[in-house]
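DM from R.C. (forwarded with permission)

"hey, sorry to bug you on a friday — could you get me a structure for this? deadline for the figure draft is monday and I only need the backbone to look sensible"
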Amino acid sequence: MRKEDWLLQEIDNWQGEGIINAETATLLQQRYNRARSFSSITVIFAIIGALLIGSGVILIMARNWDNFALPLRISLAYLPLLAAQALAVYTVRHHFASLAWREASGILLTAGVFTVIAMVGQIFHLSADLGRYLLICGLLSLPGIYLLDAATPLAVYFGAVISWASMSYESVNVLLLLFFLTLGFIYSFRQQGSGGTRLSYIAWSSVLAGLALVPLLSSTLRCSIEAMLLCFLALLLAGSEIKAYLRVSCQGVATLGGFITLAVLSYENSWQYGYDLNSWQSPVGTVIIALLAVAALFLTVKRLPLKSLTTLQVACYLLLATLSYIWSSMPYLERSGAWLLAAVANLALLTIGVGYLVSGVRGLFLRQTNIGMAYICLLIFMRFFDSELDFLWRGIVFLLLGTTFLLINLRLVRLRKETLLEDNL
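My reply, with the result:
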């Protein structure tokens, strides 16, 4: 834990124990919050400065590149990497406690790796393979992430490895991709005690990397991307309560990703024409989907209350994932009832939206209330302009939605009256 975070926590304890009054606590919190913000700005400026310096050196060399002799070109190609390595050694020995030094050294070292491999390939006219280049550079930058304990190069590593996998859809590469991403995830899990904005950044990078893995796996293994994606999002929601630092990133990605997926599935055409004539589920893809679903169910039962909003979302995601898997496994000519599955997706969207709205109003949580309103308003907007429904069915849908809103409103009014009576008593 950073010293500013520790001190802010101690200030709350001092106020609770009556050592200092509320006014003094507020002044202290404002002072050290400013210090924490200044520290974050310092790290950001250090990273930007390091990138600008590296880019400037490369551009200056590129200006006179054709006039240099071959030995000089080779020397200049390795110069950025050697300089970055020297700075990394100096940082480890003298400034390892400084986050700004570590992050700047880490991003310069990563840039040096990418630069030297590209320049050597250009000098000797080696065959160009962008996917292999990204993979090699990403793997060579990984030791710097661990040795310097730098978070910024981690996002570069995830991007390089995922980009490599997206350029070659081979089954063997799927296993390699899982192994390479695991190396990055291990670093993320090691940072649980670091705290602050940096830990949140690492969590977001890891969660987004896992999300990018889903379409690659489903495309390579030929299985339902909707089923795998919904199971993964359900796992994120169920696992968000394991550690506090995972809560914001996991719930944010799962909520937004779940809404987009369910919104697509709420149209009949997405079920009717979403799969080709030879659609089938591979055994490996089926196993992965099953493992994700079982893990989500296990964590939900183990960690979440039965009547919580998160449990409701997990249930909706897993229900749609099961229907999507079954639907995509059916022969094309035997498929019927796409409208019914679209109706289930619409009902799931409405249920989640109402759940957010009710939970937010009950607990006076503005964020949850706004999310619920956004869910429901966007659902109404989509159905109003839905060309797949004629005016009769659209009218029926709006009557049902309006009735639901009135019933919810009456229920909320009664709850508010009951709360007021309890407070008066």
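R.C.: lifesaver. The CA atoms of residues 6 and 195 lie 10 Å apart.
me: no worries. The chain is about 80% helix and 0% strand.
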